[in-house]
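[scheduler] slot 2 assigned
[scheduler] job type: sequence-to-structure, two independent chains
[scheduler] chain ordering preserved from manifest
[runner] begin chain α
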Amino acid sequence: MKRNRRIVATAAGITALAAGGAGIAYGVAGESDERPTGPGAERAKRAALEAVGGGSVSEIERQDGDGAGAFEVEVRRADGSQVEVHVDRNYNVVGQSGDDDGPGETEGSGEDEGGGAEDD
């Protein structure tokens, strides 16, 4: 009887540790489907559109910490090309690059489109 309780307690402990580890990994990775909204996001969109001469915003997300920008704004130009524009917390464009992947896809290699400092 004591052995069965010990096995059940051990299994419960392992399950709790695994669930906790998964939660920590998710929290550290910071992956989220939440997109920025509100006045700040709108200002970032306007700055990006002005920097590339118009188009439509296909995606906006918070900068993931590997560059100088606070927002990454993907803009689809009238010719169908897509550019990723990096906007800082003061809504200044600090870089832009060609964006070969579509909205929601993983980053691929992009060529520098000019118009600001590259923040690789």
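[runner] end chain α
[runner] begin chain β
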Amino acid sequence: MGKRPLVFCGCCRRRASPDKASGNKPQVIGKDKEISINIGKPSSAPPETAASAALRAKESAALGVALQDSELAKMCGAGLPVRELRALRLLCEQSCRGIDYARLGHGFPPQHPTNRLSYREGRHESFQKSAQRSQESRGILLCICLQLMHQPNTAAATIVREFCREIRASDSACQGATFEGVSAALENELLLPLRSLCEGISWLCLTHSKEPLPRAEIEKTVSEITQSVLRNNFKEWRYGNPVGMRQLQGLSEAQVAKWTEATSEWIPLGERNLRIHEDEAHELGLFWATKIGGPSHGFDVLGQCLLPLLANARSKVILISDTSYPHHPVGRAHFKLLWTVSNQPVLWLETVNKDFRAQVDTGTWLSAVLAHAVTKANAMGVMLSCEPKIASELSAAAAKANPSLVPVVMYMQDRLVLRPSNAVVEASDYLSNKHDWLQMAEEVTVPLQRVVYIPPNAPPPAADPGAATATPLIPGFFKSVL
């Protein structure tokens, strides 16, 4: 059959007559998008296994719900590889249940949801206010499904293009985008986080105290973050860019490998289990980490405060997943690799936060997180610094990890060096009283009172002439070398 353009209404899919005066030019669908549907010979495919057919049926049904057209979804899904069908379904779900950040902006106090599950459900008023844009997206995706019925071999490229359009990424950020990167982003529900960052640049250019941040540098950071996700090399970019490498300079290769590892362990608790983990190997969970508890530095609430976690090699989180709440991780603590003024590395652990919505037992969380952090400190041979109020819990975790040794745990006042941030800003309520601030140059903190665990294989802390001497937590635990 010959090729000819078909023109469809973006909302109801009715075929319209081509405009002769326009030379059969396809109708513009949505915003600045032209979709031409060419009818060609369907491609042949090998026989499908029963398992694959069942998965295809499941994905097609879910696609039909998102599109509000089960018949079209079934016909479209019949000709697509299951991998592309799944990505298309995720794209439709996240696009047709979205927030229009270009119109609504960000905001503090939060005007958007404060927990991840509410984004998945799409019932918050932010989604209601964005209904027109979601409907426009649905119209475009309906036409795309019609196109893919006849051109299934274009599915991967089409999904990449439409994802970039949905998040409003800059042209430079889209260069080199891959289906693997877009598919991973969709699997981790990143359409709205990336859209928020790309459309919310003006909101990212002010600190919480309304101090201006350089727009060009913020735009560059957001573009690099987005591009690394689209290219499927987010983790490699985080640790491999020059600023990130400088933040880790001074660690051995083995220490760098251990720091960048997504360390994880399960803790059985009878009827439920906890998983303590530094996200996953791809680290895409970092985009959602600060939607766990508060204060929320989420992608659409004080979004500039999320940038340091996404862009800095020195910044990670320890997450808590609980099998009694299977939707997503329910706890998190910021975890950083910093340096003392005497150029000694230190693991910096901040408070443990709980998801606002999850009703779970947190009684064992602190001890589990401290056990994880102590194990990491032992593996790296690096000091671990915590809040003084949890000194006894830190001592217990250190003693349990080193049953044959007397653990070295001490109160310490020290200054820390903050090497330049790769995110333009830094954000922490524990490193500074400024909450978030411009941090493109190296700076030194004021002396900070902390409780510190010294692993058996770590060198003793060097003296800091600008801070107080170390004090053993329990007499006899530490022979001061200061």
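[runner] end chain β
[qc] chain β: Confidence is low (pLDDT under 50) at residues 1-43, 474-482.
[scheduler] slot 2 released
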